[in-house]
Write a structure and sequence with these properties.
The protein is mostly helical. About 55% of the residues lie in helices and about 10% in strands. It has a three-stranded parallel beta sheet with strand order 1-2-3, with helices on both faces. Helix 1 runs parallel beside helix 2.
């Protein structure tokens, strides 16, 4: 489950119809797909699901209230599914990417004000992320955080959250 889009804007500037569309695509569609495939995988006693969430669902970023909520919800569902389904031979891998060079990342970056911090944010490469995801599936790991520097934000979420909200980039809209 890697489909999704990111729309960066302050909560009060979101039309509710746009927020619903983002939640449908980034949260509800992946949950529906997970729900659809799990019964047959459980019955067979094997299978795997990879859900691509986001570090924005773990560490709050200004302008990402709806996107962050969708990714946080998918992250939580994926982590729980991993625990619940492992005994039935179904593995669920949750992927927490930070910025990864892509059209989504370029469009999102354009929605933030230009700042020293925004320009300094480490950006990963799609091929490297794909290799880590494949390794996680092969090795039975529950999650992937990439680029590696974001492990700190994943593990020290309270510190990362305070920093991101106090010093993170501001949305343009």
């Amino acid at each position: 489950n890697a489909a999704g889009f990111m729309d960066v804007r302050r909560l009060e500037r979101f039309a509710w119809s746009d927020a619903e569309w983002l939640l449908d695509v980034d949260l509800l569609a992946p949950l529906r797909l997970l729900h659809a495939v799990v019964p047959s995988m459980s019955e067979r006693g094997n299978g795997f699901v990879v859900n691509v969430t986001s570090m924005a669902g773990r560490v709050p970023l200004r302008g990402c209230s709806v996107y962050g909520a969708a990714k946080a919800g998918l992250s939580m569902a994926s982590e729980i599914a991993h625990a619940e389904l492992a005994e039935r031979g179904v593995r669920v891998v949750t992927v927490y990417p930070g910025p990864v060079a892509s059209r989504l990342e370029a469009a999102a970056r354009a929605q933030f004000e230009r700042s020293v911090l925004a320009r300094a944010v480490p950006t990963g490469q799609a091929r490297a992320l794909a290799r880590r995801v494949l390794d996680a599936v092969r090795d039975g790991r529950a999650r992937v955080v990439y680029p590696s520097i974001y492990e700190l934000g994943y593990r020290a979420v309270n510190l990362a959250s305070r920093f991101a909200l106090a010093r993170g980039p501001e949305p343009v809209a």
